[in-house]
Amino acid sequence: MCVNFGTMYSKPVLALKYCQYLFRASNSRGHGIHSPFLFEFIDKVLNDDRSFHAFQDIEQERKAFLKNKTLLTIEDFGAGSAILKTKERTVASIAATSLKPRKYSQLFFRMIDHYGFQQILEIGTSLGITSAYLAAANPKARVVTLEGSVAIANQASQLFKQLDITNIQLITGNFDDTLKGAVDNFNRIDFAFIDGNHRYAPTIAYFTKLLEKSGSNTVIILDDIHWSREMESAWNWVKDQEAVTMTIDLFFVGIVLLKKEFLAKQHFTIRY
After folding, report:
1. How far is CA 246 from its chain centroid?
2. Taking the CB of the first residue and of the last residue of the chain, which one, N or C, has fewer CB atoms within 10 A?
3. What three-state secondary structure class fits 243?
4. 52-58, long-range: CB < 8 A, 24+ apart
5. Are 257 and 268 in contact (CB under 8 A)?
6. Number of H helices, E strands in the chain
7. Number of domains in the chain
8. Which residues fall within 8 angstroms of residue 109, CB to CB, at 6 or more apart?
9. 102-118 per-position pLDDT tens digit
10. Is the CB of residue 34 less than 8 Å from the CB of residue 243?
């Protein structure tokens, strides 16, 4: 989907915020972390440097996208339900600006592999690279991914066929129209990745809908939590919700846990 970020921070402001994040973040080795869950997450997942068999195949497809000069006509959805405009972009330019970097896609893979998540929802397929990681992490899992643009969704579908990934259901259309049905068709959601319309109100709406099928073991990840004032406000709103018992700020993504055994809210910033 062609993501609408609202008013993004300028590069100098974003760089300053990243420096501030590095200054306040706990080290990535887990030293001084008193939460047993978080220590294990850092030790067994965040710092797991194994290269799984699927990584090479998926990254080869990323490289192919970065060289693909095919021109796509893309629907650009804003915060409402109407199409605001269309634009033409090459597959290569979409891959360069919209795909989640390997570092984070592979982190999501390791999370699904380590915790055995089986019911997975992604809001924002883009070209399908991250979707492929989510599905490859557990071939027995059910992965539902939502994409707004038909042209981009077609590229993702081709990717899944190329990689012989069969446990992904790709739903195309405006999230305002597709999210409710997608969530309602889950008995539960184990893992969700919100990478859609990067504005305050839609992000809150997506998160609120996901809570309907979330439980104590659900993990929800928000993308780009510091890229704009709206996204930082949305992240702070999420942290304040009663169901949220732990958050992990990795700067470019925010991880949300709902574990009821955490009796007090805990918010961590970890260098990654």
Report:
1. 17
2. C
3. coil
4. 52/106, 52/109, 52/113, 52/136, 54/109, 54/132, 54/133, 54/136, 54/137, 55/102, 55/106, 55/109, 57/163, 58/105, 58/129, 58/132, 58/133, 58/136, 58/163
5. no
6. 10, 10
7. 1
8. 52, 54, 55, 133, 134, 136, 137
9. 999 999 999 999 999 99
10. no
Check residue 135 and give its pLDDT.
Answer: 98
pTM (two decimals): 0.93
How far apart (Å, rounded) are the C-alpha atoms in residues 200 and 194?
12
Kindly state whether residue 35 falls inside one of the protein's structural domains. yes
What residues have CB less than 8 Å from 121, skipping those under 6 apart? 143, 144, 145, 146, 182, 183, 186, 189, 191, 192, 193, 210
Please check whether residue 183 lies inside any domain of the structure.
Answer: yes
Of 167, 207, 208, 215, give the one whose Cα is nearest residue 189: 215
Is the pLDDT at 132 greater than 60? The verdict is yes
- Alpha-carbon distances of 51 from 68, 88, 247, rounded to whole Å: 26, 36, 27
Q: What count of Cα atoms within 13 Å lies in the side-chain half-sphere of residue 139?
A: 7
Residue 101: its H or E element: none
Non-local (6+) Cβ contacts of 165 within 8 A are 132, 135, 136
3 is a domain residue: no
- At 68, which amino acid appears? N
Residue with tokens 């996204």: 231
Inside any domain, residue 5: no
What does each C-alpha distance from 212 to 182, 206, 248 come to in angstroms? Answer: 12, 10, 22
Our CA dihedral for 205, 210, 214, 218, rounded to 10 degrees, sits at: -100
The domain in which residue 222 lies consists of: 11-269
Report the alpha-carbon distance of residue 100 to residue 224 in Å, rounded.
Answer: 10
For residue 25, the domain's CATH number is: 3.40.50.150
